[in-house]
Amino acid sequence: MKIISTYSARAALVALAAATVCGTIALAAAPGPTLGPLSVNVPSPGGYFQGTGAEILNQHCVTCHSAGFVERQPKLSASTWTVEVTKMKKAFGAPYAEADIPKIVDALVARQKAMK
Ligand code: HEC
After folding, report:
1. What ligand 1 atom has the least distance to the C-alpha of 108?
2. Are 66 and 46 in contact (CB under 8 A)?
3. Does the Cβ of 110 fall within 6 Å of ligand 1?
4. Largest CA-CA distance found in the chain, in angstroms, rounded
5. I want to staple 44 with a disulfide (CB 3.0 to 4.6 A). Which of 2, 6, 13, 68 is the partner?
6. How far is the CA of 88 from the centre of ligand 1 (A)?
7. Domains, the chain, with CATH or none
8. Ligand 1 atom index nearest CA of 92
9. What are the pLDDT digits (tens) for 43-80?
10. What angle is formed at CA 46 by the lines to CA 43 and CA 52, rounded to 5 degrees?
């Protein structure tokens, strides 16, 4: 009686080990997901600036959000843009130098003038 129960326990262990090995092999052989190109239409077209001031604004402003985010603002004065561009740096960590802020503001104002 005791011998039989030991034998059964061993058989169960061998079966478990075999199942584990087979399971591993089956998993390794299973095909992975197929990845391919995907095109998504975002609600705000124009991820980049074009035209007046585009170069400096693409350099400093599209790391975190699209150009459209900036373009949808109403016409703002230079001092309001200065507050805004300073906020991007101080509050959100935009990496441009403080010395670059006036040049960025000039580009934003020139851009809004050119558009209206
Ligand atoms: C380090 C990341 C970062 C950079 C770089 C950055 N911004 Fe932003 N910007 C943000 C975040 C975060 C918000 C807030 C988004 C929200 O409210 O959902 C924001 C919002 C804005 C808004 C909407 C109004 C507001 O104050 O929330 C304007 C306008 C704007 N940014 C302009 C700019 C301009 C111009 C530049 C380039 C000089 C710039 N941003 C660069 C992070 C950044």
Report:
1. 35
2. yes
3. no
4. 97
5. 68
6. 5
7. 54-115 (1.10.760.10)
8. 1
9. 555 689 999 999 999 999 999 999 988 988 999 999 99
10. 145
